[in-house]
Each structure stands twice: as C-alpha cells, then as structure tokens.
Amino acid sequence: ELGSELSYQASHDQLTGLINRREFESAAANLLSESSADHRGFALLHIDLDHFKLINDSLGTEAGERILREATSVLRGRSRSGDLLARIGSGEFALLLCDVTLPIAERFANRLAQRAAAKRFVHTGQAWPLRFCIGVMHKSADGDQTIADLSSGAAMASRLARDKGDRYIGIFRDDDNDLRRQRDDLIWGTRVADAITQKRLILFLQKISPAAEP
Predict the structure, then answer these.
(1) What proportion of the chain, given as a percentage, has pLDDT over 90?
(2) How many Å apart are CA 118 and CA 195, to the nearest integer?
(3) What Rg, from alpha-carbon coordinates, does the chain have?
(4) pTM greater than 0.90 (yes/no)
(5) Do residues 139 and 32 make contact, with C-beta atoms less than 8 angstroms apart?
(6) Distinct helix (H) and strand (E) counts, the chain
(7) 2-20 as b/e: b if 16+ CB within 10 A
(8) How far apart are the first and last CA of the chain?
(9) What is d(CA 163, CA 156) in angstroms, rounded to the nearest whole number?
(10) Could you tell me where the DSSP H helices lie in 60-146?
(11) Which candidate, 39, 77, 113, 210, has a CA 20 to 30 Å from the CA of 93?
C-alpha cells in the first residue's frame, strides 16, 4: 500500500489529482507510438489559465488553489474517454486529443474556451472570469513529430494567442510568420545567454567625448 501511494504521488499532482508533466510525457509518447493506419492523428492543447499569477499573488494561495480546482473540473468535464489530461505547470494544463483532425481539435478548443468563459470565479466578493489561453498543435497519423515537438509548438501558439489579446485560441502552423518569429527569438535568446555564460560574447564600450571644449 505504501509503495502504491508513493508511486501515485510521484506521478500525480496532489492538488488537482491529474497526472504530472513527467507522467504525461511518458503516457503520451506511448499513445503516439501505438496509433494505427486509419488513425486521424493527435492534437495537443496547451491550456494556460489566464491571470492565474495575478489571482494567486493578490488574493493568496487559497484563492489560487480554488481556481485551479475549478479549471480542472471544467477540463475533466470536457475531456473525452481516451484523451490524456495533465497539470504541467503552476497554471498550465496539457490535453492530448486522440484520433482527431485539426478542424475537430480547433472546434474542441473553442468550445472549451467558451465553457470556461461562461463561469465566474468568486472570492471575497470579487468575480474573476475563468479564462483559458489555448495553443493547439496537430500531428497526422504518419507525422514524425514527437511529444516534445507537440508540447513546444502548442506552448508557443498559446503564448502568441495571449500576447495578441484579441483571441484566446492559437493554432500552430509551420508557415505562421508570428510563430516563426517567436521561435527565432527563443532560439537566439538561448544562444546569447549561453554565449555570455561561456564567455564567448565580450562587450566593449568606448567613451564618447566632445571634440572641442565647450
């Protein structure tokens, strides 16, 4: 019993009861490898609970835990049998939809966002919308994307949707210039940080002085 309990704690989030990131990546990788020829593909939804940090910091951890439980309830209610749902960050969730096309996944994400937006989180007399920013990346049955590729692409699409502010659903497409720019920014940010750490980037400055005394 103790071994079973320890195994559960290692693979699940204690607050929501959902599987954690490590368990999700392992289970999702297995699902991707087992798809059949007539399978319509997979779609990974990266779901970011909008304003979660603000609520958690301004109203306290008790309010933060309550809104996480409400978000989990909405996600559980919309998830289908055979799909994979996990909490992968402080206010982040991942949902792997199995045997779906991209249009089906996009409609699903829109309905999910609408279902959340229809709810209000009330704490000490204040009402907050339960709002999701959702990034979607699809993999066809014969696609070679890994679960890491899907996670990265869906997360970028979610960030882009949130940054634009006029919509809360982002679809990852290879030909999307905004996504390509965001990916390049991340790559170059990492390269610059590594170069500074490894002392391969040296900054010089030169004093600028007037040519003549004023």
Answers:
(1) 41
(2) 47
(3) 21
(4) no
(5) yes
(6) 7, 7
(7) eeeeeeeeeebbeebebbb
(8) 84
(9) 11
(10) 61-78, 102-117
(11) 39
Question: Per DSSP, what are the bridge partners of residue 120?
Answer: 129
Q: pLDDT for 186-199, tens place per residue?
A: 677 778 888 888 88
Of the pLDDT bands very low, low, confident and very high (cuts 50, 70, 90), residue 210 is confident
Around 74, how many Cα atoms within 13 Å sit in the side-chain half-sphere?
23
Cα dist from 116 to 70, 77, 133, 134, 194, whole Å: 9, 11, 10, 11, 40
pLDDT of residue 165: 63
Q: d(Cα 108, Cα 145) in Å, to the nearest integer?
A: 21
Query: CA-to-CA distance for 13 and 64, rounded, in angstroms?
Result: 15
Q: What is the pLDDT of residues 92-139, one digit of tens each?
A: 999 999 999 999 999 999 999 999 988 887 877 777 778 899 999 999
- Encoding tokens for residue 177? 């210039």
Q: Check residue 204 and give its pLDDT.
A: 84
Query: Contact, 126 vs 153, CB < 8 A?
Result: no
